[in-house]
Amino acid sequence: MLARGRRAAERLMVDECLITRPGATVTDPDTGQVTNEPGEQVYSGKCEVKTKDTVAAKPEAGEHSFTVVARVVKIPANSADVADGDVVTLTATRHTAFTVGKQYKVDGFTPDSLETASRLPVEEIL
């Protein structure tokens, strides 16, 4: 039954993404310039991007109000060792071409034992 659920979940994964783990931050002691070492590829393949909650939060900061929409990126179950801080880049899509190139940071991922897909809570990187 779990295998059937996983196959059904994967049929909805019509997008493609690349997940990378950023490299360590390095500061040059002479100049103070901060750079990142090269990162590593964690996953490349099919995915699905969904809105996690149907209600958007509207926090206020000072006199500014903005909308926060929670999203989740689904990848096949047990296909990658994803960690918080990893970066998801959408590389292809069948339905919404304007989303190609969007990047999200994984935040709060906890794998489940009997999941039909790995659901990665993400925040959009602007």
Structure commentary:
With 126 residues, the chain is mainly beta. Helices cover 8% and strands 43% of the residues. The strands form 3 sheets. A 6-stranded antiparallel barrel has the order 1-4-7-10-9-8. A two-stranded antiparallel sheet has the order 2-3. 14% of the residues are buried.
On the 0-100 scale, what is the average pLDDT? 87
Class based on secondary structure composition and strand pairing: mainly beta
> Remind me, CATH topology?
Thrombin, subunit H
| SSE pattern, N- to C-terminal | HEEEEEEEEEE
β-sheet strand percentage: 35-45%
How many DSSP H or I helices? Answer: 1
Shape, principal axes of CA atoms: globular
The strand count comes to: 10
Biggest sheet character: 6 strands, antiparallel, barrel
Question: Can you give me a brief rundown of this structure?
Answer:
Helices cover 8% and strands 43% of the residues. With 126 residues, it is mainly beta.
Layout of strands and helices, then pairs:
Layout: H1 2-11, E1 15-21, E2 25-27, E3 34-36, E4 40-51, E5 60-61, E6 64-65, E7 71-76, E8 87-92, E9 103-106, E10 117-125
Antiparallel strand pairs: 1-4, 1-8, 2-3, 4-7, 5-6, 7-10, 8-9, 9-10
Structure characteristics:
mainly beta; 126 residues; Thrombin, subunit H; two-stranded antiparallel ribbon; globular; 1 helix
